[in-house]
Design brief:
binds NADPH dihydro-nicotinamide-adenine-dinucleotide phosphate; three-stranded mixed beta sheet; seven-stranded parallel beta sheet; 14 strands; Rossmann fold
């Protein structure tokens, strides 16, 4: 198959550039669409992605909102990875619904129509989102959300991005279903949770995922809301796309990609344990309910979407990702820490004075779960045991922290060392707090 041509739409994107890199490394012929071929900030790094690729990447211009260029882009392609879609950060930008829904839905149909017209395309892999599986504000904590679930597009609390993803995915399934037998193409859909992991290009600083982590590293906010969502590694998402191109059993199916569901605080802690000793003041405190409520007065996304989800547990099934696509999820620590190292290397976030890492770990192949833990164990043995190493690290951290952070860290350390009964006590307290919050909500 590697001699066949694969079209990747929106190839300059954060996720798509990882997909292109994998395909080029595996020896595939890749053609990518960009909106502006004269944008050197995006084009030059794409050309340098895999310098010794068997087939250098080919780039063409096409915009989801225009017909021009799509027929030419599709010429001779056997496979299409449709990844382009507007994806603004709705917590910071106010984007009108039309600016999202139209290019996502109509753009998807434009791409599929060009694929059909080319007559050579066997399979299309569409990048949808977990938002098309469950995008409503209400979460059922008893449910294990899976690929049979669909976001109700009529639900009044959907944000415009979620709507755009549901409508684009539905349009794609309908389009494929209605094709006459002599023109049949297969469709496989990838539904990633929130994607984190190393960006490959400086231009990815504008992508929603990278922007989120930039805010954490730069301590834009002093605390994080008590929100849980499914998180996945960008390298796992990229591998999922490549698997979905070729595996016969992926055709006609949706595939949720998630490592697990995590509280935003878990993500912050994964960052903090590696980067706080290196001079980054990562916020790990939980934002009180009333602060998010206040923010909701000014921001519709906070009010309609984040507020009702505060404190709610969300379970998501990744069986199809593991069993059908054969992807073992990357550990959260590895995802978060590799992401920040890559962001520092690319100059997306500043290099702190105490920054110790030499070189990026972004190029390290997706680690199996626990790779980082193993690395730490090795280090521990060299210096006389893991336990000793941990104590030393905690002491060093304490010395380096500002007074307010020191109190917070002491609290974390105490929590690590406490007896099960204390942990039980805190769980009870947390449950009570949660109850109070939901009563206040009512
Ligand atoms: P990026 O913003 O990095 O990439 C989006 C890509 O879409 C860019 O290449 C962009 O091109 C292109 N694009 C946007 N609008 C248009 C348009 N009108 N015409 C042509 N191309 C356009 O986002 P991600 O890499 O994070 O997202 C990629 C896909 O994955 C999207 O479909 C997104 O919905 C989906 N997804 C992402 C998740 C995440 O957490 N990141 C989670 C779940 C799904 P340009 O460079 O010119 O702006």
């Amino acid at each position: 198959m590697s001699e066949e041509l694969i079209l990747v739409t929106g190839v300059s994107g954060y996720i798509a550039s990882h997909v292109a890199k994998l395909l080029l490394e595996d020896g595939y012929r890749v053609r990518g669409t960009v909106r502006d071929l004269s944008d050197e900030g995006k084009v030059a790094p794409l050309k340098a992605l895999v310098p010794d690729a068997k087939h250098p990447i080919e780039l063409v211009e096409a915009d989801l909102t225009k017909d021009d260029g799509w027929d030419k882009a599709m010429e001779g392609c056997a496979f299409v990875l449709h990844m382009a879609s507007p994806f603004p950060d709705l917590t910071t930008a106010n984007v009108p619904e039309d600016a999202l829904v139209k290019p996502a839905r109509e753009g998807t149909l434009r791409v599929l129509e060009a694929a059909r017209a080319a007559g050579t395309v066997q399979r299309v892999v569409l990048t949808s989102s977990f938002a098309a599986v469950h995008g409503e504000a209400a979460v059922d904590p008893e449910k294990n959300y899976n690929e049979d679930d669909w976001t109700d597009v009529e639900s009044p609390d959907l944000d415009s991005y979620t709507k755009s993803k549901v409508l684009a995915e539905k349009a794609a399934w309908d389009f494929i279903k209605e094709l006459p037998d002599e023109r049949k193409m297969e469709l496989a859909v990838i539904n990633p949770g929130f994607v984190l992991g190393p960006p490959l290009m400086e231009s990815h600083k504008g992508s929603t995922s990278v922007n989120y982590m930039t805010q954490i590293v730069n301590r834009t906010y002093p605390a994080v809301p008590k929100l849980m969502f499914p998180v996945c590694d960008v390298r796992d998402v990229a591998r999922a796309h490549v698997q979905a191109l070729t595996l016969p059993e992926a055709a006609g199916k949706r595939h949720i990609i998630t490592t697990d569901s995590f509280w935003m605080k878990d993500v912050a802690l994964a960052a903090s344990k590696e980067f706080r000793p290196q001079g980054y003041n990562i916020p790990t405190c939980q934002l009180p309910y009333f602060v998010v409520w206040m923010a909701g007065i000014f921001n519709k996304t906070y009010k309609n979407h984040l507020l009702p989800r505060l404190g709610k547990v969300m379970k998501v099934d990744n069986k199809r990702m593991v069993e059908t696509l054969g992807i073992e999820p990357t550990a959260l620590d590895c995802t978060v820490q590799d992401m920040i190292y890559a962001m520092i290397d690319l100059g997306i976030v500043r290099k702190a004075k105490k920054y110790k890492q030499v070189g990026s770990r972004a190029e390290v192949p997706p680690a199996a779960n626990g790779e980082i833990e193993d690395e730490k164990k090795d280090k521990g043995t060299e210096k006389g045991g893991e336990e000793q190493e941990k104590e030393k690290e905690q002491e060093e951290e304490k010395k380096e922290l500002e007074p307010e952070d020191k109190e917070e860290k002491d609290e974390e350390i105490k929590k690590d060392d406490r007896q099960p009964s204390e942990a039980k006590e805190e769980k009870k307290k947390n449950n009570e707090e949660q109850k109070e919050e939901s009563e206040a909500e009512k």
